[in-house]
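[Discussion] Sanity-checking designs against the backbone

I'm trying to build intuition for which residues belong where. Below is a C-alpha coordinate string of 503 positions. I'd appreciate it if someone posts a full sequence so I can compare it with mine line by line.
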Protein backbone atom coordinates (compact mmCIF):
# COMPACT_ATOMS: atom_id res chain seq x y z
CA UNK A 1 0.00 0.00 0.00
CA UNK A 2 1.40 3.39 -1.06
CA UNK A 3 1.33 5.86 1.81
CA UNK A 4 2.99 8.84 0.15
CA UNK A 5 5.65 10.13 -2.23
CA UNK A 6 8.05 13.05 -2.38
CA UNK A 7 9.33 14.66 -5.59
CA UNK A 8 11.50 17.62 -6.51
CA UNK A 9 10.45 19.49 -9.63
CA UNK A 10 12.52 21.89 -11.74
CA UNK A 11 9.83 23.96 -13.44
CA UNK A 12 10.15 25.86 -16.69
CA UNK A 13 9.46 29.53 -17.07
CA UNK A 14 6.31 30.66 -18.83
CA UNK A 15 6.52 30.73 -22.61
CA UNK A 16 9.58 28.50 -23.01
CA UNK A 17 7.92 25.88 -25.30
CA UNK A 18 6.27 28.58 -27.41
CA UNK A 19 9.55 30.46 -27.77
CA UNK A 20 11.44 27.37 -28.89
CA UNK A 21 8.75 26.55 -31.45
CA UNK A 22 8.97 30.07 -32.90
CA UNK A 23 12.75 29.86 -33.10
CA UNK A 24 12.54 26.53 -34.92
CA UNK A 25 10.02 27.98 -37.38
CA UNK A 26 12.48 30.80 -38.00
CA UNK A 27 15.10 28.23 -39.09
CA UNK A 28 17.11 28.73 -35.90
CA UNK A 29 18.92 25.66 -34.66
CA UNK A 30 18.46 25.01 -30.93
CA UNK A 31 21.03 23.11 -28.88
CA UNK A 32 20.74 22.45 -25.13
CA UNK A 33 23.93 22.15 -23.09
CA UNK A 34 23.26 21.06 -19.53
CA UNK A 35 25.09 19.45 -16.67
CA UNK A 36 22.16 17.20 -15.76
CA UNK A 37 22.12 13.48 -16.42
CA UNK A 38 20.72 12.05 -19.63
CA UNK A 39 17.26 11.13 -18.31
CA UNK A 40 16.73 14.59 -16.83
CA UNK A 41 17.98 16.31 -19.97
CA UNK A 42 15.60 14.32 -22.17
CA UNK A 43 12.64 15.05 -19.89
CA UNK A 44 13.45 18.75 -20.07
CA UNK A 45 13.63 18.44 -23.85
CA UNK A 46 10.13 16.99 -23.96
CA UNK A 47 8.86 19.57 -21.47
CA UNK A 48 10.03 22.52 -23.56
CA UNK A 49 8.78 20.88 -26.79
CA UNK A 50 12.29 20.64 -28.16
CA UNK A 51 11.69 16.90 -28.56
CA UNK A 52 8.49 15.34 -29.85
CA UNK A 53 7.17 11.79 -29.90
CA UNK A 54 7.66 11.42 -33.65
CA UNK A 55 11.40 12.10 -33.44
CA UNK A 56 13.97 9.33 -33.46
CA UNK A 57 16.43 9.61 -30.58
CA UNK A 58 20.02 8.94 -31.62
CA UNK A 59 22.21 8.42 -28.55
CA UNK A 60 25.95 8.72 -28.25
CA UNK A 61 26.48 5.03 -27.53
CA UNK A 62 25.12 4.18 -30.96
CA UNK A 63 27.91 6.21 -32.55
CA UNK A 64 30.61 4.90 -30.22
CA UNK A 65 29.93 1.33 -31.37
CA UNK A 66 31.29 2.37 -34.81
CA UNK A 67 28.78 0.60 -37.05
CA UNK A 68 30.10 0.00 -40.54
CA UNK A 69 26.66 -0.72 -41.95
CA UNK A 70 23.12 -0.22 -40.71
CA UNK A 71 21.43 -3.05 -38.89
CA UNK A 72 18.36 -4.78 -40.41
CA UNK A 73 16.16 -3.01 -37.87
CA UNK A 74 17.49 0.38 -38.96
CA UNK A 75 16.91 -0.54 -42.59
CA UNK A 76 13.28 -1.28 -41.82
CA UNK A 77 12.77 1.95 -39.87
CA UNK A 78 14.60 4.19 -42.35
CA UNK A 79 13.91 4.79 -45.99
CA UNK A 80 15.10 7.14 -48.72
CA UNK A 81 17.41 10.04 -47.98
CA UNK A 82 17.30 9.51 -44.21
CA UNK A 83 18.85 6.05 -44.56
CA UNK A 84 21.46 7.28 -47.02
CA UNK A 85 22.45 10.32 -44.95
CA UNK A 86 22.59 8.46 -41.66
CA UNK A 87 24.67 5.63 -43.11
CA UNK A 88 27.13 8.06 -44.68
CA UNK A 89 27.63 10.04 -41.47
CA UNK A 90 27.97 6.95 -39.30
CA UNK A 91 30.55 5.38 -41.62
CA UNK A 92 32.45 8.65 -41.68
CA UNK A 93 32.56 8.78 -37.89
CA UNK A 94 33.79 5.18 -37.74
CA UNK A 95 36.53 5.82 -40.29
CA UNK A 96 37.63 9.00 -38.52
CA UNK A 97 37.91 7.17 -35.20
CA UNK A 98 39.89 4.33 -36.78
CA UNK A 99 42.48 6.54 -38.48
CA UNK A 100 45.82 7.18 -36.83
CA UNK A 101 46.83 10.42 -38.55
CA UNK A 102 47.62 13.65 -36.79
CA UNK A 103 44.39 15.17 -38.03
CA UNK A 104 42.30 12.55 -36.25
CA UNK A 105 40.90 14.99 -33.72
CA UNK A 106 39.91 17.54 -36.33
CA UNK A 107 38.25 14.88 -38.51
CA UNK A 108 36.23 13.53 -35.60
CA UNK A 109 35.14 17.04 -34.64
CA UNK A 110 34.09 17.83 -38.20
CA UNK A 111 32.17 14.56 -38.49
CA UNK A 112 30.37 15.17 -35.20
CA UNK A 113 29.37 18.70 -36.21
CA UNK A 114 28.11 17.45 -39.59
CA UNK A 115 25.99 14.79 -37.91
CA UNK A 116 24.70 17.10 -35.18
CA UNK A 117 23.75 19.94 -37.51
CA UNK A 118 21.75 17.55 -39.69
CA UNK A 119 19.44 16.85 -36.74
CA UNK A 120 16.48 18.93 -35.65
CA UNK A 121 17.76 19.33 -32.09
CA UNK A 122 20.81 18.45 -30.02
CA UNK A 123 21.04 17.88 -26.26
CA UNK A 124 24.45 17.55 -24.61
CA UNK A 125 24.28 16.33 -21.01
CA UNK A 126 26.85 16.04 -18.23
CA UNK A 127 28.92 18.89 -19.68
CA UNK A 128 31.14 21.16 -17.62
CA UNK A 129 31.32 24.96 -18.07
CA UNK A 130 34.55 24.56 -20.04
CA UNK A 131 33.01 21.93 -22.29
CA UNK A 132 30.08 24.24 -23.04
CA UNK A 133 32.49 26.85 -24.34
CA UNK A 134 34.39 24.22 -26.34
CA UNK A 135 31.19 23.07 -28.05
CA UNK A 136 30.40 26.64 -29.05
CA UNK A 137 33.93 27.08 -30.35
CA UNK A 138 33.66 23.79 -32.24
CA UNK A 139 30.54 24.88 -34.09
CA UNK A 140 32.02 28.28 -34.94
CA UNK A 141 35.16 26.62 -36.28
CA UNK A 142 33.56 24.08 -38.61
CA UNK A 143 30.28 25.72 -39.65
CA UNK A 144 31.15 29.44 -39.95
CA UNK A 145 27.83 30.51 -38.47
CA UNK A 146 26.63 33.12 -36.01
CA UNK A 147 26.12 31.55 -32.59
CA UNK A 148 24.02 32.84 -29.71
CA UNK A 149 24.42 31.44 -26.20
CA UNK A 150 21.88 32.05 -23.44
CA UNK A 151 22.21 31.10 -19.79
CA UNK A 152 21.31 32.20 -16.28
CA UNK A 153 24.11 30.94 -14.05
CA UNK A 154 27.81 31.27 -13.37
CA UNK A 155 28.44 27.94 -15.13
CA UNK A 156 27.26 29.54 -18.38
CA UNK A 157 29.71 32.46 -18.35
CA UNK A 158 32.37 30.73 -20.50
CA UNK A 159 29.76 29.71 -23.06
CA UNK A 160 28.29 33.22 -23.21
CA UNK A 161 31.71 34.80 -23.71
CA UNK A 162 32.69 32.34 -26.44
CA UNK A 163 29.54 32.80 -28.53
CA UNK A 164 29.19 35.62 -31.02
CA UNK A 165 26.16 36.92 -29.12
CA UNK A 166 25.78 36.35 -25.39
CA UNK A 167 22.44 36.65 -23.60
CA UNK A 168 22.13 36.47 -19.83
CA UNK A 169 18.96 35.82 -17.85
CA UNK A 170 18.62 37.44 -14.46
CA UNK A 171 17.32 34.80 -12.09
CA UNK A 172 17.86 33.05 -8.79
CA UNK A 173 21.33 31.81 -9.72
CA UNK A 174 22.99 35.21 -9.54
CA UNK A 175 23.98 38.01 -11.89
CA UNK A 176 27.23 36.58 -13.26
CA UNK A 177 25.68 35.62 -16.59
CA UNK A 178 24.03 39.02 -16.98
CA UNK A 179 27.23 40.92 -16.24
CA UNK A 180 29.19 38.98 -18.87
CA UNK A 181 26.55 39.05 -21.61
CA UNK A 182 25.77 41.38 -24.49
CA UNK A 183 22.05 41.44 -23.72
CA UNK A 184 20.23 40.92 -20.43
CA UNK A 185 16.71 39.47 -20.27
CA UNK A 186 14.34 38.85 -17.41
CA UNK A 187 12.76 35.74 -18.96
CA UNK A 188 13.64 33.24 -21.65
CA UNK A 189 10.45 34.07 -23.56
CA UNK A 190 11.76 37.58 -24.27
CA UNK A 191 14.26 36.00 -26.63
CA UNK A 192 11.62 35.71 -29.35
CA UNK A 193 11.20 39.49 -29.54
CA UNK A 194 14.95 40.04 -29.31
CA UNK A 195 15.59 37.87 -32.38
CA UNK A 196 12.43 37.75 -34.46
CA UNK A 197 11.41 41.39 -33.99
CA UNK A 198 14.28 43.66 -33.02
CA UNK A 199 16.99 41.51 -34.57
CA UNK A 200 15.20 41.28 -37.91
CA UNK A 201 14.33 44.99 -37.88
CA UNK A 202 17.98 45.85 -37.19
CA UNK A 203 19.14 43.74 -40.13
CA UNK A 204 16.50 45.30 -42.39
CA UNK A 205 17.43 48.85 -41.39
CA UNK A 206 21.18 48.34 -41.76
CA UNK A 207 20.81 46.77 -45.21
CA UNK A 208 18.48 49.47 -46.52
CA UNK A 209 20.66 52.20 -45.01
CA UNK A 210 23.74 50.87 -46.79
CA UNK A 211 21.92 50.43 -50.09
CA UNK A 212 20.46 53.94 -50.10
CA UNK A 213 23.71 55.48 -48.86
CA UNK A 214 25.73 53.93 -51.68
CA UNK A 215 23.04 54.79 -54.20
CA UNK A 216 22.80 58.46 -53.29
CA UNK A 217 26.59 58.78 -53.23
CA UNK A 218 27.01 57.31 -56.71
CA UNK A 219 24.01 59.18 -58.12
CA UNK A 220 25.00 62.57 -56.75
CA UNK A 221 28.76 62.63 -57.14
CA UNK A 222 29.46 60.63 -60.31
CA UNK A 223 28.50 63.72 -62.34
CA UNK A 224 31.95 65.04 -61.43
CA UNK A 225 33.47 62.23 -63.50
CA UNK A 226 31.24 62.75 -66.53
CA UNK A 227 31.92 66.50 -66.52
CA UNK A 228 35.67 65.87 -66.33
CA UNK A 229 35.54 64.00 -69.65
CA UNK A 230 34.04 67.07 -71.34
CA UNK A 231 36.18 69.69 -69.61
CA UNK A 232 39.49 67.90 -70.04
CA UNK A 233 39.81 67.46 -66.27
CA UNK A 234 40.23 71.22 -65.82
CA UNK A 235 37.12 72.07 -63.76
CA UNK A 236 34.34 70.54 -61.69
CA UNK A 237 30.61 70.84 -62.04
CA UNK A 238 29.95 71.11 -58.30
CA UNK A 239 31.33 73.67 -55.90
CA UNK A 240 32.92 72.81 -52.58
CA UNK A 241 29.90 73.70 -50.46
CA UNK A 242 27.59 71.38 -52.37
CA UNK A 243 30.06 68.50 -52.17
CA UNK A 244 30.46 69.04 -48.42
CA UNK A 245 26.75 69.36 -47.65
CA UNK A 246 25.42 66.72 -50.03
CA UNK A 247 25.88 63.74 -47.71
CA UNK A 248 25.65 65.48 -44.34
CA UNK A 249 22.69 67.77 -44.99
CA UNK A 250 20.85 67.52 -48.32
CA UNK A 251 20.32 63.74 -48.34
CA UNK A 252 21.06 62.82 -44.72
CA UNK A 253 17.54 62.89 -43.29
CA UNK A 254 15.86 60.32 -45.61
CA UNK A 255 18.67 57.79 -45.23
CA UNK A 256 18.86 58.21 -41.46
CA UNK A 257 15.08 57.83 -41.24
CA UNK A 258 15.33 54.52 -43.06
CA UNK A 259 18.15 53.36 -40.81
CA UNK A 260 16.31 54.28 -37.61
CA UNK A 261 12.58 53.89 -38.28
CA UNK A 262 12.11 51.36 -41.09
CA UNK A 263 9.66 48.51 -40.38
CA UNK A 264 8.38 46.26 -43.13
CA UNK A 265 5.83 44.57 -40.84
CA UNK A 266 4.71 45.18 -37.27
CA UNK A 267 6.03 43.35 -34.23
CA UNK A 268 2.91 41.16 -34.04
CA UNK A 269 3.29 40.14 -37.67
CA UNK A 270 6.98 39.39 -37.12
CA UNK A 271 6.05 36.91 -34.38
CA UNK A 272 3.14 35.54 -36.40
CA UNK A 273 5.38 34.89 -39.42
CA UNK A 274 8.75 33.75 -38.00
CA UNK A 275 9.70 32.52 -41.49
CA UNK A 276 10.65 36.12 -42.30
CA UNK A 277 13.78 35.63 -40.17
CA UNK A 278 15.23 33.45 -42.94
CA UNK A 279 15.79 36.60 -45.02
CA UNK A 280 18.63 37.66 -42.76
CA UNK A 281 20.12 34.18 -42.54
CA UNK A 282 20.44 33.97 -46.32
CA UNK A 283 21.73 37.56 -46.74
CA UNK A 284 18.97 38.37 -49.19
CA UNK A 285 18.89 42.13 -48.59
CA UNK A 286 22.56 43.01 -48.99
CA UNK A 287 25.20 40.98 -50.81
CA UNK A 288 27.58 41.36 -53.74
CA UNK A 289 24.74 41.16 -56.24
CA UNK A 290 22.72 43.83 -54.42
CA UNK A 291 25.79 46.06 -54.21
CA UNK A 292 26.38 45.69 -57.95
CA UNK A 293 22.76 46.54 -58.74
CA UNK A 294 22.95 49.56 -56.42
CA UNK A 295 26.14 50.76 -58.11
CA UNK A 296 24.61 50.46 -61.59
CA UNK A 297 21.45 52.21 -60.41
CA UNK A 298 23.41 55.13 -59.01
CA UNK A 299 25.56 55.42 -62.13
CA UNK A 300 22.49 55.38 -64.40
CA UNK A 301 20.86 58.13 -62.32
CA UNK A 302 23.95 60.33 -62.57
CA UNK A 303 24.24 59.69 -66.31
CA UNK A 304 20.61 60.63 -66.94
CA UNK A 305 20.80 63.78 -64.79
CA UNK A 306 24.03 64.97 -66.42
CA UNK A 307 23.41 64.22 -70.09
CA UNK A 308 19.78 65.36 -70.12
CA UNK A 309 20.93 68.73 -68.78
CA UNK A 310 23.85 68.78 -71.22
CA UNK A 311 21.53 68.08 -74.14
CA UNK A 312 19.07 70.77 -73.00
CA UNK A 313 21.74 73.46 -72.50
CA UNK A 314 23.74 72.71 -75.62
CA UNK A 315 22.18 75.32 -77.96
CA UNK A 316 19.73 77.19 -75.76
CA UNK A 317 19.73 80.49 -73.91
CA UNK A 318 16.63 81.23 -71.86
CA UNK A 319 14.87 84.46 -71.08
CA UNK A 320 17.14 84.99 -68.06
CA UNK A 321 20.36 83.73 -69.60
CA UNK A 322 20.42 80.19 -68.22
CA UNK A 323 22.81 78.65 -70.72
CA UNK A 324 25.97 79.37 -68.74
CA UNK A 325 28.17 77.12 -66.63
CA UNK A 326 26.60 78.14 -63.31
CA UNK A 327 23.06 77.43 -64.51
CA UNK A 328 24.12 74.09 -65.92
CA UNK A 329 25.70 73.10 -62.59
CA UNK A 330 22.57 74.08 -60.64
CA UNK A 331 20.34 72.13 -63.03
CA UNK A 332 22.43 68.96 -62.76
CA UNK A 333 22.56 69.27 -58.96
CA UNK A 334 18.80 69.81 -58.65
CA UNK A 335 18.03 66.90 -60.99
CA UNK A 336 20.22 64.40 -59.17
CA UNK A 337 19.18 65.62 -55.72
CA UNK A 338 15.44 65.36 -56.40
CA UNK A 339 15.89 61.98 -58.08
CA UNK A 340 17.70 60.63 -55.02
CA UNK A 341 15.08 61.96 -52.60
CA UNK A 342 12.21 60.47 -54.60
CA UNK A 343 14.01 57.14 -55.02
CA UNK A 344 14.72 56.82 -51.30
CA UNK A 345 11.12 57.72 -50.49
CA UNK A 346 9.77 55.01 -52.81
CA UNK A 347 7.94 52.43 -50.75
CA UNK A 348 8.23 54.47 -47.55
CA UNK A 349 4.90 56.28 -47.04
CA UNK A 350 5.78 57.55 -43.57
CA UNK A 351 8.94 59.19 -44.94
CA UNK A 352 7.01 60.97 -47.70
CA UNK A 353 4.53 62.40 -45.21
CA UNK A 354 7.29 63.60 -42.89
CA UNK A 355 9.17 65.22 -45.79
CA UNK A 356 6.04 67.04 -46.93
CA UNK A 357 5.41 68.34 -43.43
CA UNK A 358 9.00 69.52 -43.02
CA UNK A 359 8.95 71.22 -46.44
CA UNK A 360 5.68 72.95 -45.57
CA UNK A 361 7.05 74.17 -42.23
CA UNK A 362 10.52 75.20 -43.40
CA UNK A 363 9.71 76.85 -46.74
CA UNK A 364 8.40 80.17 -45.32
CA UNK A 365 11.39 80.53 -43.02
CA UNK A 366 13.88 79.76 -45.78
CA UNK A 367 12.20 82.26 -48.09
CA UNK A 368 12.48 85.00 -45.47
CA UNK A 369 15.99 84.14 -44.33
CA UNK A 370 17.62 83.49 -47.71
CA UNK A 371 16.46 86.02 -50.32
CA UNK A 372 16.78 85.35 -54.02
CA UNK A 373 19.67 87.82 -54.29
CA UNK A 374 21.86 85.79 -51.88
CA UNK A 375 25.16 84.88 -53.52
CA UNK A 376 27.66 82.46 -51.99
CA UNK A 377 31.33 83.37 -51.89
CA UNK A 378 32.91 82.97 -55.30
CA UNK A 379 29.58 82.32 -57.04
CA UNK A 380 27.48 84.42 -59.41
CA UNK A 381 23.72 84.97 -59.07
CA UNK A 382 23.08 83.36 -62.46
CA UNK A 383 22.89 79.88 -61.00
CA UNK A 384 20.17 80.81 -58.52
CA UNK A 385 18.25 82.75 -61.15
CA UNK A 386 18.23 79.65 -63.34
CA UNK A 387 15.71 77.98 -61.05
CA UNK A 388 13.19 80.70 -61.92
CA UNK A 389 13.27 79.83 -65.63
CA UNK A 390 10.48 77.48 -66.81
CA UNK A 391 12.82 75.77 -69.25
CA UNK A 392 15.18 74.75 -66.45
CA UNK A 393 12.30 73.48 -64.34
CA UNK A 394 11.08 71.35 -67.24
CA UNK A 395 14.58 69.91 -67.65
CA UNK A 396 14.69 69.03 -63.96
CA UNK A 397 11.23 67.45 -64.21
CA UNK A 398 12.27 65.42 -67.27
CA UNK A 399 15.35 64.10 -65.45
CA UNK A 400 13.23 63.23 -62.43
CA UNK A 401 10.74 61.27 -64.55
CA UNK A 402 13.45 59.40 -66.45
CA UNK A 403 15.22 58.42 -63.22
CA UNK A 404 12.18 57.35 -61.18
CA UNK A 405 9.82 55.71 -63.69
CA UNK A 406 11.96 52.55 -64.23
CA UNK A 407 12.41 51.90 -60.50
CA UNK A 408 8.73 52.56 -59.77
CA UNK A 409 7.76 50.14 -62.54
CA UNK A 410 10.02 47.43 -61.12
CA UNK A 411 8.62 47.95 -57.62
CA UNK A 412 5.04 47.70 -58.84
CA UNK A 413 5.76 44.66 -61.02
CA UNK A 414 7.81 42.61 -58.54
CA UNK A 415 6.38 43.86 -55.25
CA UNK A 416 7.90 45.86 -52.42
CA UNK A 417 10.81 43.43 -51.97
CA UNK A 418 12.03 42.63 -55.51
CA UNK A 419 15.33 41.20 -54.26
CA UNK A 420 13.73 38.36 -52.29
CA UNK A 421 12.86 34.88 -53.58
CA UNK A 422 9.28 34.25 -54.66
CA UNK A 423 8.42 32.19 -51.56
CA UNK A 424 9.64 34.91 -49.18
CA UNK A 425 7.88 37.58 -51.24
CA UNK A 426 4.59 35.74 -50.75
CA UNK A 427 5.14 35.55 -47.00
CA UNK A 428 5.98 39.28 -46.80
CA UNK A 429 2.95 40.18 -48.90
CA UNK A 430 0.68 38.01 -46.76
CA UNK A 431 2.04 39.56 -43.57
CA UNK A 432 1.48 43.09 -44.89
CA UNK A 433 -2.02 42.48 -46.21
CA UNK A 434 -3.36 40.59 -43.21
CA UNK A 435 -5.21 43.02 -40.90
CA UNK A 436 -4.02 43.61 -37.39
CA UNK A 437 -5.99 41.69 -34.74
CA UNK A 438 -8.37 43.76 -32.68
CA UNK A 439 -7.55 44.46 -29.07
CA UNK A 440 -9.66 42.40 -26.67
CA UNK A 441 -10.53 43.67 -23.22
CA UNK A 442 -9.77 41.02 -20.64
CA UNK A 443 -10.65 40.79 -17.00
CA UNK A 444 -7.99 41.41 -14.42
CA UNK A 445 -6.00 38.27 -13.61
CA UNK A 446 -6.33 37.29 -9.92
CA UNK A 447 -3.25 37.92 -7.86
CA UNK A 448 -2.87 34.31 -6.79
CA UNK A 449 -3.08 32.77 -10.27
CA UNK A 450 -0.01 31.35 -11.97
CA UNK A 451 0.99 29.18 -14.92
CA UNK A 452 2.48 25.77 -14.23
CA UNK A 453 4.57 23.54 -16.48
CA UNK A 454 5.53 20.22 -15.00
CA UNK A 455 8.52 18.26 -16.26
CA UNK A 456 7.47 14.96 -14.71
CA UNK A 457 7.33 11.86 -16.92
CA UNK A 458 7.01 13.67 -20.22
CA UNK A 459 8.69 10.75 -21.96
CA UNK A 460 6.39 8.07 -20.52
CA UNK A 461 2.93 6.84 -21.38
CA UNK A 462 -0.12 8.33 -19.71
CA UNK A 463 -0.65 6.78 -16.30
CA UNK A 464 -0.78 8.43 -12.88
CA UNK A 465 0.76 11.65 -14.19
CA UNK A 466 -2.57 13.48 -13.95
CA UNK A 467 -2.82 12.67 -10.27
CA UNK A 468 0.76 13.67 -9.56
CA UNK A 469 0.72 16.90 -11.58
CA UNK A 470 -2.66 18.11 -10.32
CA UNK A 471 -2.61 21.83 -9.59
CA UNK A 472 -3.84 21.62 -6.00
CA UNK A 473 -0.93 19.37 -5.05
CA UNK A 474 1.69 21.98 -5.93
CA UNK A 475 2.70 25.03 -4.00
CA UNK A 476 2.20 28.46 -5.54
CA UNK A 477 5.64 29.62 -4.46
CA UNK A 478 7.60 27.17 -6.59
CA UNK A 479 10.74 28.52 -8.16
CA UNK A 480 11.18 29.02 -11.86
CA UNK A 481 14.39 28.20 -13.64
CA UNK A 482 15.67 27.94 -17.11
CA UNK A 483 17.93 25.56 -18.89
CA UNK A 484 20.94 27.14 -20.57
CA UNK A 485 21.13 26.59 -24.27
CA UNK A 486 22.98 27.37 -27.43
CA UNK A 487 21.28 28.77 -30.50
CA UNK A 488 22.63 28.65 -34.02
CA UNK A 489 20.53 31.01 -36.13
CA UNK A 490 21.94 29.95 -39.51
CA UNK A 491 21.67 26.13 -39.56
CA UNK A 492 18.96 24.14 -41.33
CA UNK A 493 17.58 20.90 -39.86
CA UNK A 494 17.70 17.86 -42.12
CA UNK A 495 17.00 14.73 -40.07
CA UNK A 496 14.43 13.92 -37.40
CA UNK A 497 17.00 12.55 -34.96
CA UNK A 498 18.78 13.83 -31.91
CA UNK A 499 22.35 13.09 -30.84
CA UNK A 500 23.09 13.38 -27.13
CA UNK A 501 26.77 13.29 -26.28
CA UNK A 502 28.47 12.89 -22.95
CA UNK A 503 31.53 15.09 -22.99
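Best answer:
Here's mine. Compare freely.
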Amino acid sequence: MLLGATAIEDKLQDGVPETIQLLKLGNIKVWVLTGDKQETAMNIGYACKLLTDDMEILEEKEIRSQPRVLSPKDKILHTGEVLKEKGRLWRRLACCKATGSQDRGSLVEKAFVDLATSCQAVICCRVTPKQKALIVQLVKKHKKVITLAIGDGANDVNMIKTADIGVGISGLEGMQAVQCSDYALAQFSYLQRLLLVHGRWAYLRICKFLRYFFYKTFAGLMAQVWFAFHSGFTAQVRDGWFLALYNIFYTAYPVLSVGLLEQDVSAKKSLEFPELYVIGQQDELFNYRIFGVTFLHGVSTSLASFYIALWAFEDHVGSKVVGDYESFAVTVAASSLLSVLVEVSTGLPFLILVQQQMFRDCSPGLSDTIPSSFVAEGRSPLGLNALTDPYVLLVVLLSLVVNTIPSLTIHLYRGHSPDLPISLQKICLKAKRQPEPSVELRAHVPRGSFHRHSSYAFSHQEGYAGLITRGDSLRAGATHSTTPGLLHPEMTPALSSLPSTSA
